[in-house]
Amino acid sequence: MTIEVRVPQLPESVADATLVSWHKKPGDSVVRDENLVDLETDKVVLEVPAPVAGVLKEIRLSDGTTVTSGQILAIIEEGAAAVPGASAPAILAASSGATAAAKDTVAKGAVAKDSKPDAVKQDTAGGKLSPAAKRVAEENKVDPKTVAGSGRDGRVSKSDVVNYLTTKDAASPAPAPGAAGAAAAGVAAKAPAQFVPAPSARTARAEQRVPMTRLRARIAERMVQAQATQALLTSFNEVDLQAVNELRARYKDAFEKQYGVKLGFMSFFAKACVEALKKFPAVNASVDGNDIVYHEYFDIGVAVSTDRGLIVPVLRDADQLSFADIEKSIGNFAARARAGTITIEELTGGTFTITNGGVFGSLLSTPIVNSPQSAILGMHKIQDRPVVIDGQVVVRPMMYIALTYDHRIIDGREAVQFLVTVKQCLEDPARMVLHI
Q1: For 28, which of 24, 93, 300, 323 could close a Cys bridge (C-beta 3.0–4.6 Å)?
Q2: Hey, which residues are catalytic here?
Q3: Average pLDDT for residues 317-323, to the nearest whole number?
């Protein structure tokens, strides 16, 4: 009995997906729930499992195809077993046609190469000069056959001809004094010999052109959209993290023992941002046409870097989460994001975003707002720096923080005071407990 493998129902916000790669080929045995193929959407990679055990009889769509919900991807012969040495069916008629077309193109290219005009052949015969080398050789009446080529297949480059002339001039006797000698000396003084670096040992400089992934293309689209549609401005401040460091050092062992997760910095920043968002609701708002939408909940997006690009899973109702809840959620998000198992729902929404470039060593940056949100906080590298406290110069662990915001609905005063509130909460963490 043949069973159709179809594209699963895509989320409402996703119109289509790209078929990334097949993990099986026609004729292979498959087991139930084994991943057959990966589909990439704008946000996540979806796995398509085998609905039954059997043999993959036919693949209908090839890698790189754009697919929609319900399309047939492949056919499985249920209960069948793979026959060793049996030839696998063709993956796709269109793929075969594309392969034939590619071979035909290569063949035509070969014919075109062999049928170039005689004049071109004559230029490359006996010396194999590059165009620049040919020009220099003709100007200086040099026989190309006397110049040793350093290029591929003995090709003579411009530098080969120049080096040949330099060596030849050095071996020639000095001109006799007189008018001709003086004139030659004068020309030489006015036009010194051109310096040509030694030819590189590298024979070719390779390039590779690859299409953007769906995720990378979507990131690019959203970033350009944010800059084109929002009046973005960035304000900066710096935070003394001495109090946070002391608190983490004092309770890190007890915290990890009780909750099974390390006490990191992100939970402190998420909580500090919630306190600041409560005081300045415009920073937690968004623009919808001519309306401003004030969100009365706090869904904090936390940027996570993956091999496929930057994604932003969302901490729902972050104001109601404990420090342990936040640390566990972020760790879980990061692990599943890098494994490609995070869901689209977990990446959707969000009223404010935090991004941490400090983990990569960034000292200062201007993050781009995650549209349609109106603001994003950038964390950076913690660095010991001298600061003045109570008239004394002391060394403290300092971090620059940046708030990029949409100036259409957030005034500079609100942005600056937002950063000051975040700074106060981090420098005196008791404020986050007392909500002051």
Answers
A1: 24
A2: 407, 411
A3: 96
